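Lab meeting, action items carried over

1. Structure of the two-component assembly. Owner: GW. Status: complete.
Input record:
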Amino acid sequence: MSTATMPDSTAAPRTERRTHKEKPDASALRIYGVRRRTVNLVMLACVVFAVFTLIPIWWIIVSSTKTVPNFNSTFGFWFARPFELLSNLKEVFSNQEDGSYLQWLGNTAIYAGAGGVGATVLSAMAGYGFARFDFRGKNALFVFVMGALLIPLVAFAVPLYLVYAKVGLDSTMPGIFIPFMVSPVSVYLMRVYAGASIPRELIDAARIDGAGEGRIFLRVAWPLMIPALITVFMLNVVSSWNNFFLPFIINNNNNLYPLTEGMQVWFWHTNISGSSENFTVLTMAGCMISILPLLLMFIALQRYWRGGLLLGGLTG
Amino acid sequence: MPFFVIFFMFLVVPLGYSIYTSFFTTRMIGGTVFTGFSNYTQALESGAFWSGMARVLLFAAIQVPIMIVIATFFAAMFDMGVSRFGGFFRAIFFLPYAVPGVVATAMWGGMLQTRVGVFVRIFEDLGLPDPNFFGASHLLGVIVLIAIWEWTGFTIILLYTALKSVPKEVVESAIVDGAKFSRIITRIKLPIIRPAIILVVIINVIGALQLFTEPYLLSPMAPNISANYTPTLYMYNEAFSAQFYSYAAAIAVVLAFVIILISTAFLLSQRRKGAIT
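Predicted assembly:
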């Protein structure tokens, strides 16, 4: 990919968040001579798209407070009596028909946590290595790793399952989260960021002072890479948390399901006649809860988020 | 000595990855060598495979451009500061990124389903017939809608941050030269972030061609979703329902080949135009 050949120095850590202190509306009017009508039309577009974005989320919140008969008969975008949120949530956590929701939630947390931490550590080491060490075949190796970006996940899935079946890793926890740890995008991001934020002189100075390479990585490089580390961590937690396809192919033990697989099974119950009617509301409540942890993570880590990293290396 | 230990680790991590990759590639070829290329010829001659392929190509051709246009529009408006409460709207638009595709599909599927779905009910109240969202004519549109809901916000943020990194001086000198608002966006800013747009297009095309989760989840409520609705669905069914693992692996390889071909062709065509180096 073209991205592999870009120079290292382009993606400095940016603080784009703080640049918009002035009243945006007034400044656009003044600087660019934008007409009021244009501003209003853009505002309208924003509101329309925001409504489109929020509709399913609002609907799922409303739905998870309803009884099944009410879900089937009352207006979907507004609440109806009786307000059954608590008993629905209780049912979500106590239903044992296909495995337990609480266990799926725990599994997902383990997979996303292990995938996030593993991908961050591995790509930090690889990215730092690519950025600050010169070794033979470095560029070829980097292009090779980046080439994996173009290969669809689908191409890995079935072979991975077959190999797992051979070595006994199919339907095991490590079998599910180890693939999440391999993230070529993260290696790329860490290489770009390490190249821009860790001065060579600093490493050389540490070497002269007699620090070992492991110490330099942990004490000098790691702290300097923290904004990128957090961004890479968040990206990988989200992609592991939301992944359905890979666990779905690799695992068929319902005690090891992540939430996505569990919700798929519940959702299918709602559509197959003869299964317990409860599943409509149950699926809605379960889906709603499954979104919350990631939202909380985003709110908590928001100020460390450097979305600009993702494309900074391409546009700078 | 510790240097070599660490150095070794740095080498081993990417190398481990490459072994990992090559291992599976050899496995695929190793697994198919016994039967020669018969699995590949079977896949390439299979109408079931190509009808799925045609469908995901159509899906990508509809979904990706619509999403890129919407995302570019909002990113440019946020970047130019035309929108009031920009930060608020960006946060809302970004929300679906935190929603798993399974959950997004369950939500839209639940809202659009026949009889009890809220939209169907609204049609009913207005005296209109049930539009049958999961019928043959609307099905792909529904999946496009779900995909747009899932990925537009993330794309907006990516393009917005790319636009933010355009040097201020360039825009300032354009203003001094008297360039109009729309000209600054279309003639100055967008060409500068063109590599970013190309990357976003490629990532989304690669994702779109692997379409699986949405149609798989919807299949019980939409009888029109056949076992070969998309190539990935076809591969899955051949592998796990029919146990034709090596045939499924061949399908995956052909699909991967098509995807790599399309993205490389797109990259090369853009490079010829001088958009990227």
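2. GW to write a short summary for the group page. Key points so far: Chain B touches chain A through 109 residues (CB under 8 Å). Residues 37-83+152-272 of chain B form a domain with the MetI-like fold fold (CATH 1.10.3720.10).
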